[in-house]
Specification:
elongated; mainly beta; 19-stranded parallel β-sheet; 4 helices
Length: 651
């Protein structure tokens, strides 16, 4: 009996222990707001919750329905696990007498409804908190961070209208996070990461917190080939922070790292992290002033593109790292706005491309382009150096089809190349015809080399078929000025050095390649021409007439007449020519022999096939012109002839 009593005692003790342990580890309940009280909107009023049970400190609170949508937490320093708005919830505004502490590390605050949900009550988070605007926007008041906090938006926006307090890291994982208060005094050492494709929008000066000049308080904008985060500035604000830009590549190469709307200012330090080669800064409207140390700290030249309809001014230091080989910026100006260099400490040795809008160099930044090897001004874009002029060194190129405003002076080995274009990432250059316009004086007396491209067998379309230079001020050429003729843009068979030159080269030709304003002065001529003589074809020379320079071609070439049946003008009628006839069979053409029309009736048909068969063979002089087509080719030509006969009979 004594044994049994002890046994039962142990079983009872074990049972109580189990119950106690269960109570200690059991999660809180889910309590759902129904606003059922006839008296007030308080959390502690049991009738406001489904089942008439007020929430306990470990509970998960859910708000639903459209009754009493302004609930108030009236407990003393209340603590709950999480807070959520259900899919069928109307727009709620949650208030509190004291700050609410939320303990959950996942799904800490969630909006599952499609309407804006507002929490005016101050909220304190535990480490690892997650705020999720899953189906609609969220608005919060003052927020105290207890540890690393992550925001998710899934295409929606979370706005913090109060202050951020703490020193913990923040990550915006998706959607948009908006900070609207000056957090300089309250968010003192927390780093912010703009991750994935999220947006951090700052609408107050100091919104991102204090700057302690370390990475502990930086804004880090991720990149590489899988990240497209963006920092947005709005409202006429100043942000004094370190900003790290991870280079972009792949599908995210064009996504803005920083986007500004209105008149905003960046201070602190902006610097790079590996991931790709591209960095993008955009001014949507107004003026973005960058007073930062704009620091390229990686090896090699990394591209930064300044774009947008608004303007951007660089008023700080823009340079590479002198201790790292080849560390520098390449700069691309895109969009319709103006990029202004307005600092004496802008110095980079990567290429510069003005692809849209204007790049302006002020008197303060007069030598900003001195180390940029290639300066490209694309069609429709402007480089404004009117304040200082542009002095080009021996190693520099000035190229493109845009406008240079101001005086330009070249050194002995400077290259001027009208028409040359590069893509918007300033990595690849393509020779093309164009017009480079200098609205000022152009001084080539030290002996610069001008490259002239011919892009089509034409004298009629300057800037399209061949290069031109137009100068509104004085133009001076010296005893060592060089003009280099470049025919590489032409297809090989159209060049003057082709084995059987085109009939175009059988006549004298002339192109106006320089046009100086009538009110200005043109002095001198090109002293040297390169690639100007072609044996048996002709020679080129320049001719000055008033304020114009012409490039003349003196032909000695007597081309043989074209061979009927020859579509590629190589004087050989073969399978390639027959294929062109087959390709255009029965259709109207305008290209003559090149399209397979040998009788000039603008139609490719049996008559042309017969002409081709009659002229089959090599007409270059090495073989008889009467060579007979291969049997298979005879069958093809006869087949094409027969195909068209029934069609004509039926008409």
């Amino acid at each position: 009996m004594q044994f049994l009593s002890r046994k039962w005692f142990l079983l009872v003790l074990l049972g109580f222990s189990s119950i106690l342990l269960t109570a200690l580890v059991a999660p809180g309940a889910v309590v759902v707001w129904d606003g059922g009280s006839m008296v007030d909107d308080y959390f502690t009023t049991a009738e406001n919750w489904v089942g008439d049970v007020a929430p306990a400190s470990t509970d998960d609170l859910q708000f639903d329905g459209d009754v009493r949508t302004n609930p108030v937490s009236d407990d003393v320093f209340p603590t709950y696990n999480s807070l959520a708005f259900n899919a069928t919830a109307s727009a709620f505004t949650v208030d509190s007498f004291d700050p609410i502490t939320l303990a959950a590390t996942t799904y800490t605050i969630v909006n599952n409804s499609a309407v804006l949900q507002t929490i005016n009550a101050p909220v304190a988070f535990a480490a690892g908190a997650q705020i999720r605007a899953t189906a609609g926007n969220l608005a919060l008041g003052n927020v105290t961070l207890g540890g690393a906090t992550r925001f998710y938006g899934d295409g929606f926006t979370t706005t913090i209208n109060g202050n951020l307090t703490g020193t913990s890291a923040i990550t915006t994982g998706s959607g948009t996070v908006v900070l609207t208060a000056d957090n300089t005094a309250t968010y003192t050492a927390g780093a912010i990461t703009i991750d994935n494709n999220s947006v951090l929008r700052l609408t107050a000066s100091g919104a991102a917190g204090a700057n302690d000049s370390t990475e502990a308080s930086m804004i880090y904008i991720t990149g590489a080939s899988t990240e497209g985060g963006t920092l947005e500035l709005e409202g006429g604000i100043t942000i004094d922070k370190w900003i790290k830009l991870q280079s972009r590549s792949g599908d995210y190469v064009d996504v803005s790292h920083i986007r500004s709307t209105g008149n905003n200012t960046l201070r602190g330090r902006i610097y790079t992290r590996a991931g790709g080669s591209n960095h993008n800064i955009e001014s949507v409207s107004g003026l973005l002033t960058i007073e930062s140390l704009f620091d390229q700290i990686l090896s090699g030249a990394r591209l930064v593109r300044f774009g947008g309809e608004g303007d951007i001014k660089i008023a700080g230091t823009m340079t590479g790292n002198s201790t790292i080989a080849d560390s520098s910026w390449r700069v691309g100006k895109i969009g319709a706005g103006t990029l202004t260099y307005d600092s004496s400490t802008i110095s980079y040795f990567g290429d510069t491309g003005v692809f849209g809008g204007t790049l302006e160099v002020t008197a303060t930044a007069g030598s900003a382009l001195a180390l940029s090897p290639k300066i490209t001004v694309a069609s429709g874009a402007t480089l404004d150096v009117s304040a200082t002029g542009l002095a080009l060194s021996d190693t520099q190129y000035l190229q493109g089809s845009g406008i240079v405003v101001g005086n330009v002076a070249a050194s002995s080995l400077t290259t001027i190349s009208p028409g040359t274009i590069s893509n918007a990432v300033v990595w690849e250059y393509t020779e093309a015809a164009g017009t480079l316009q200098v609205n000022g004086n152009l001084d080539l007396s030290a002996g610069a080399n001008v490259i002239w491209n011919l892009a089509a067998l034409s004298e009629a379309n300057p800037g399209t078929d061949f290069d031109t230079l137009t100068v509104s001020g004085d133009m001076t050429l010296g005893a060592t000025s060089t003009l280099t003729l470049d025919f590489a843009v032409l297809p090989e068979e159209l060049r003057p050095d082709y084995a059987t030159p085109d009939v175009f080269w059988g006549s004298d030709r002339s192109w106006k390649i320089v046009d100086v304003d009538d009110a200005a002065i043109l002095t001198g001529d090109f002293a040297t021409l390169v690639n100007d003589s072609f044996a048996g074809v002709g020679t080129f020379d320049t001719r000055v007439s008033g304020n114009e320079i012409f490039l003349d071609f003196d032909s000695v070439y007597n081309p043989l007449p074209p061979v009927p049946g020859d579509t590629d003008n190589n004087r050989i009628v073969n399978e390639l020519d027959a294929a062109k006839v087959a390709q255009n069979w029965g259709i109207s053409v305008t290209g003559g022999f090149a399209d397979g029309d040998f009788n000039d009736d603008d139609l490719v048909n049996a008559a042309d096939a017969a002409i081709q068969a009659a002229n089959w063979g090599d007409h270059t002089g090495s073989e008889s012109a009467s060579t007979v087509p291969e049997p298979g080719m005879i069958a093809l030509l006869l087949g094409l002839t027969l195909v068209v006969l029934p069609r004509r009979t039926g008409r």
